[in-house]
Amino acid sequence: MSSEAAAAALQAAVGLLAHREHSAAELRRKLGANGHGSAAIDAALAELAEQGLQSDARFAEAYARARFERGYGPLSIRAGLRERGVSETLASAILATFDELWMTRLAELAGRRFGNAPAADVRERARRSRFLQQRGYTPAQVARLLHEP
């Protein structure tokens, strides 16, 4: 591996990080797609981590916070983190910081989408349940919100 290749990979990675946080796996994939060799990518990622410019924990926190603010639930956020190469341990730790807030966010989302009136019948309750579960909330959370047994 030449130092020029490592420097080019590092420069490309810094350019990507200038726009938003990325996980190491995302950077590895994007740099590889741009033609950088695996040795150059490894060197660039090591340098970024050493300088504190790339952190999977920081990426996971930013990603989870943004998705949470947009109304997504823990299942959806966990799946998104997994797709982006964040470890299950780190994802669990990040999601645990939101434990007290899930039901509040779920109630806000349901109120915005359906209003405060209770579901008129079983069909309407099922429709609401499907929507909320598609947003990544657990069946137990949705059932508790909709007052199902």
TrEMBL record:
HAMAP family named in the record: RecX
Protein family according to the UniProt entry: Belongs to the RecX family.
Pfam family, one: RecX_HTH3
Subcellular location per the Swiss-Prot or TrEMBL entry: Cytoplasm
Protein role: Modulates RecA activity.
Signal peptide: none
InterPro entries: RecX_HTH_1st, RecX_HTH_2nd, RecX_HTH_3rd, Regulatory_RecX, WH-like_DNA-bd_sf
Domain RecX first three-helical: 9-48
Residues of the RecX second three-helical domain: 55-93
Single biological process term from Gene Ontology: regulation of DNA repair
Main subcellular location of this protein, as a coarse class: cytoplasm
Keywords per UniProt: Cytoplasm
Domain RecX third three-helical, chain residue ranges per copy: 104-145
Protein name: Regulatory protein RecX
Organism: Plasticicumulans lactativorans
GO cellular component: cytoplasm
